[in-house]
Amino acid sequence: MRAYSKLLVALLPLFLIACYDPLLSEPFIEESTEQGVTSSGEVLELSAIPNSIDISAGGTVMIMVRLLYPNQRPIVGETVKLSATLGTLTETELTTDSDGCASTTLTPGEQAGWCVVAAVYRSAYAKVAVAFYDSSAED
What we know:
Layout: H1 2-19, E1 33-37, E2 43-49, E3 52-54, E4 61-68, E5 79-84, E6 88-89, E7 93-95, E8 101-107, E9 113-121, E10 124-133
């Protein structure tokens, strides 16, 4: 029991560092690329470039998906469904090309905050976060 207690004490600081971000008051998804995998091993990749945008300056975010078989060959002609919690997606259903890729744009609205973009292909699910901020409000 004593060894178990020492292990917990040793791991607690690492856990706290990994789970706490004092600069953010909302949930934060660190990466701008995420993968989901179907029950049969097909890979869904979702990316957002850039992963933050100033809503007062205008502009859009490129949302890209890629589908791959387990052997890394592209999956052609399949549909991926998208949704976003803020802003507007140009398209919410994308069909993959000969490279297994498809893309659309995300246009922010007037509301600052975290936009979570989710993609679904069969049983695979992936999500990325994009920060919408307003630099004109920081005066």
